[in-house]
Structure formats: C-alpha cells, structure tokens
Predict the 3D structure of the following.
Amino acid sequence: MAASSSSSRPQMGRNAGLVLGVLVLAALPLVLGASNYLLGLFISALILAGISLAWALLGNLGGMVSFGHAAFFGVGAYASALISARLGVPVLLAIPLAGLCAALCSLAMLPALRLSGPYFALAILAYAQIFRILATEATWLTGGAAGLQRYPGLPTIFGFDLSTRTGSYVLLVLLVALCALAYVAIRRSHVGTALRAIAESEDATRVVGVNSVMLKAWMLLLSAFMTGLFGALNAHIIGFLDPDYAFSGVWSVMPIIAAIFGGYRTILGPVAGAILIYMFDQVVAKSLIAVGHQILLGILLAVMILVAPNGVLGLFKRAKGGNRHAEA
Amino acid sequence: MLRLDQVSVRFGGLMALKDVSFELKGGEILGLVGPNGAGKTTLFNVISGLTRARGRTLFNDKDISALPLHKRARVGIGRTFQIPQPMKHLTVRENLTVAQVFGAGRNDPARIDEILDVMQLSEQADRDAQSGLALQELKRLEIAKALATEPKLLLLDEVLAGLESQAKRQFTGKLKELHARFGLTIVIVEHDIETISDLCSRAVVLNFGQLIADGTPAEVFRNPLVVESYTGTPHA
C-alpha cells in the first residue's frame, strides 16, 4: 500500500539517521582492524540486534509481547544446518529457507493471536518450550541433546570469505540493515499505521474495517522469519548446535531487554539497545561480577524503565526537545 | 436497509436483548431511546458486529449475522462509541486515513480534507488523537472516522452526551447537514427528548432489552410504557 502522509522532512532525517547508523556499524571493522575479539563481540551483538528488531516489530506493530522468540531462533538455526548438511543446499540459500521454516512454525501460533497481553505472551512462551523439547527428543533429525556439529560454515563469495570475523560481521550488518529497511517500509505504509493503532486501540481499528487478526498474523510471520534468519546465520558462524543453546531462554529475554533499553517503539532503538546492552554485559558487567553478571543488566533495565521508559533513543529525543513519540 | 429479526443477546444470566425486531428504511434518522442498561449500546454492538447475537441481522437484504466486525464497516455500517475511541498514537488525519483505506477501500486525501472541514477538525488534523483533542473534538473525530469509511448506515452512540444545550443544538444541526450531504441513514442513541423530536422522524424505545415502542417521537414519548420505563411508575 502507498505510504501514509507524514511530513517528508522528518522522514528524510530519520532515513539519514538510519543510513548513518548502518555506515558507522559497517565502518567499525576497518577502524577496529585486527581486533578479532571486539569483532566477535560485535557479531554477537548484531545477532541480538536482529532478534531485537524482529521482537520490536511484533511489539510495536500489533502490540504483541512475545516471550518465545527463542523458538524461531532455534528453528532457524536447526533448519539451516540441516538443509545445508542433509540436502546439500548452498548455505546462502539455506539461510532464507530456514527463515521460511521459522515463519511456517509460527503458523501454529496463529490461534494465540486472538489472545492479548499476558495471555498471548504466555502462550508463545509455552510454544517455545514445545520446540525445545522436540529438538531434544527428535534425535534422528537433530542429534538430540548431543547436538549437531558437522554442517557447513559460511562460504566464500567473489573471493570474500564470509566465515572470517570481518566477513560474518559485514553480512550481519547488511542483514540487520535489510530487516530495518523492511520494518521502515511497513511502518510507513497504511498497514503499518493501522498496526500501530491496533497495539492499543484494537476495537477502534476493527470497527473502521481493519482486519486486525490478519495483520497481526502477517507481523508474526515476518518477525519469525527475521528471527529465523539470524538463528540460521548464527548457526553457521558458531558451527555447533544443541537444543539447550539454540532454544535457550536467552534468545527470548535478551531481545526484550535490548529493545526496551534502546526504545522499542523506534527502529534504531532495538539495534542500539542490543549493541549497548551486549557490550555492557560482556565488557563491563563481566569484569565486575564474573558469575551472575546478568544481575547488572536487570538493574540497568529497571533504572531505564523508571527514568526513560522510551529507551535510550527516547532519552535523546527528550534531551533535544523532540516530539512525544520517538520515531528514529 | 436494515432489518433486525428476533435478535437476542445473553450475558450470563442477563438477557441484554430479547427478541428485538424492527426495520429501518434508507434515509431515515431513527432515535434509539431507553433508560440506562436498556440494551441500546448492545444493539449497536450487534449491528456493527462487536457482539454476536441470536436471530438475524439483514443489511440491504443480505444476512450479515455472521459477518465479522471489520467486514461490517466494508459493507457500509459505520459507528461511533459512547466513550470516544480514537486510534491512539496516530494523528487525527491518520485516524481518518486508516478508516478510509481499510473501510472504504480507497485512499482519497481530498475526501479526507472534506471530512475534516465538515467536522471542523482541519486545524487539529496533525494533532495526536489521543492527547491533543478536547472532548467535543474527540466526539467530532468519532463521527469523522465513521464518515471516512463511507458508510450508508451511521450508528451514533450518545454523541451529544455531555454537551451544553447550545452546543447540542449546533451539533444537531451538524448531524442534519451530514445526513443531507452524505445521503446517510442514521440511528442515534440519545436521551434528550427535545433533540430526538428535532432530529428524528422515528424513534424506537428499548427497556430491559425489549422493544416497547416504535413510532414518531411524539407518539413514542406519549406511550405509557415509555413513560413508565423512565419514571418507574405507571403513567397517570
């Protein structure tokens, strides 16, 4: 559908912000050069950023709070590893196919779309657990608790080895940017406008002709697809999978923390939040508390919610005297 | 245009509507009257698809009883809520655009401008619908949203409530203007006898979920059952 009518100047500013953000991220490997350690941290942060973006898309456009993105992440990871290893499909084709598998799995969640608030959140949490159990028990397919090890890593294309830290990093920046652009396009369409309204005024939107269940279903499919992509990419980067890792609750909880920290109503917020949160956890919190460092994340999030409920980007907007509703 | 046939709604042990039947012709302005809790809003919910009911609802000779809420808007039934329900986080113009795109199936900014102008909301077009409007403006936005869906039938739930008498007269004049300009059929829930008499060619009265009177406003307000339903005592 055509873009909704907003003033073009703020949109141009937001576009510029997005492009600048992507360029800064893409330039980091050149700036940081030989530091494989830091690149590794940024790779993990970008995986988290991708899931956070997918989570925020679902929360912001449709008002669905998910505690089960680990399911989509795990399905994407296993699907890509299995498709490439068992069927011999090239890895770069297996990754989007894995995203589709995650989206297909989300179809089972469609009945939960009639639920709202905590009921939806709990339903999707239960769903994530079912997939973790399936991955553990379906030994013939997934290797069970022993996991999967022998599947291809990222390939070399046009002489550029994607399996190196720099290669993986660049691929992840591109993928995060593509997902962000898809999010921007949807948000600016009439569908996106209706979805923003559905989040808090569902009856008011339905009564004017919006099929809220259908639109929310599309957002769930897209969010699952995006999360599956990052699960798949992560699987090929780390080269090992087991159910406890691939379906870990971390993949459900960390994106929520990151998105809320950054500002889940914005598009850059979840990405910025993921990078800041992950770096804080790995660089600062771990050096202060070696075991149980996540407690600092909890404290940080609580403080953020109290001080700046619209997240870091909301804080910036407020400092700049920006509008009521940050839209980076 | 609209026919309700033996419509009943039960909420647990409460019979909110009991075998309500009436017909509405195209172009009519019908007043829906009754004491609080009589079932007026429930009837609106049934017609607009928010509440499922036993019995049949026919719109332009088609049975729409099983039609979901969002499709009722698309066949030409628009409604307002007693407590205004703007689409939060959207501007006034975005509210109307969503209503037009999804309800009428087209995107016509000129028509949106016309509706904003008619409903005296042009100056507020870019304001946040949730926090930027006064109560009267919210009520006008309710109607504007419904108009953006290009309805044939407009259900107005106490849009005049809370207005002072002069504002009420102005608003009544506005409703007459909308009726003529957009060729609407209107059902309005309203308690004020003077307003119903001025605006409506016909009124139906509900009490305890049952239709107890149907006729011109003058006939209806003389009806002993109606007087009793409001005063609680038999008409002298």
Summary: Chain A touches chain B through 24 residues (CB under 8 Å).
